[in-house]
Amino acid sequence: MASVRKRTLPSGKVVWQCDYRDQHGKRRSRQFPTKREATDFETKARAEVAQGVHVADSIAETVERAASLWIEAGEVDGLEQSTLKQRREHVRLHIVPLIGNVKLSQLNTPRIEAFKDELLRTRSRALARAVLTSLKGILKVARRRGLIVQNPADDVTIDKRRTEGVRLVEEEDENAPIPSKDDIRLMLAKSAKLWDLTRVVEGRWMAGQGRVRRMVPVPWRPLLVTAIFTGMRASELRGLRWPNVDLKSGVIRVRERADRYQKLGPPKSKAGRRDIPLAPMVINTLREWRLVCPVTDLDLAFPSESGGVLLHTNLLRQGFHALLKMCELMGAKDTEPPYPFHSLRHAAASLFIEQGWTPKKVQTVMGHSSVQVTFDVYGHLFPSPDDDRTAMEQLQARLLG
């Protein structure tokens, strides 16, 4: 049985107290400033006790504790280190400071709305959306563990504005400039002059042998040629294995990626798993490269000099930025490249669209989660209605003269 009664505290403060027994038969009580709040709680507690899911306020976990369980769950599930790092940062920098000491039993939708409003006031909209998503994940795990009955954040949202881009979801940089065709041609031509497929490295002096020399494969030209014509992400190129390169059929099968810690794993989304057709230049370049590419334990298509996964920083400094300097495209101080590596992905997409590929095909080959993402990033490159009207006029002219 549960009851609501008025009570005057020793301090003289008047409260309304709900007394009840939980599903284990233990007496519980909770105080409220108004009779209506106490009555609403009594109704809610009765239903939860009847279902055997009630969690008393006195034994409820805090949001901070639930966040720790969420992170632990990700570790058990084997999430990538970069994902776990982001979870910890969201919890430490944004969730704990604002609502970490709030008990889950006291967390409701209005409280989550207030949390969202504070995020929007003090953080960027994109970051606020990401942190709110993390909080929803925390409460989802808490619900599965029986710490809360329902997720009070389910109906709380932050609308995504078109100007936000899609970086948080798919790591797309829609603001990265698209290289001109002249610059792409220049990169392809200069890469052949800048790098041979191998280079000679002089080692230590050996008695009776002189200075030992060895041949070291150089992956930069084949990697950059592949990037320009396939639109693969840097992480996908770094994680590409030879078994997924079918030169006979002219296809690369994207099945893995390398994270910032050089650990291989599946693509971040289902759409990232895809097959990409290859241009003849890519096929010929990769055939030549495979003849000198070192055999590694991971059978990587573009391994580091030591045989492991390439560091992303090395890809930029030794590969892409060196090429931009050779093309005289870097600034005077060589501090800010005119194109980020992601621009090569945009270049490939623009070539696909110019070739007349449908939005759906571009979406599939680029690995976008939806065609809307494709339009958000590349919509301005697709033919306009005026282009369609001109095409129909030409069709009519050819038919009727």
Quickly give the structural class. Answer: alpha+beta
CATH topology of the largest domain: hpI Integrase, Chain A
Low-confidence region ranges: 162-171
- Which CATH class of the largest domain is shown? Mainly Alpha
Q: Can you identify the CATH superfamily of the largest domain?
A: Intergrase catalytic core
Cα(first) to Cα(last) distance is 90 Å
Biggest sheet overview:
3 strands, antiparallel
Output the strand order for the largest sheet. 1-2-3
Radius of gyration (CA) equals 29 Å
What's the structural domain tally?
Answer: 3
* Average pLDDT reading: 85
How many individual helices? Answer: 15
SS strand fraction: 5-15%
The CATH architecture of the largest domain: Orthogonal Bundle
Order of helices and strands: EEEHHHHHHHEEHHEEEEEHHHHHH
Shape: elongated
Say how many strands there are.
10
The percent range for helix content is 40-55%
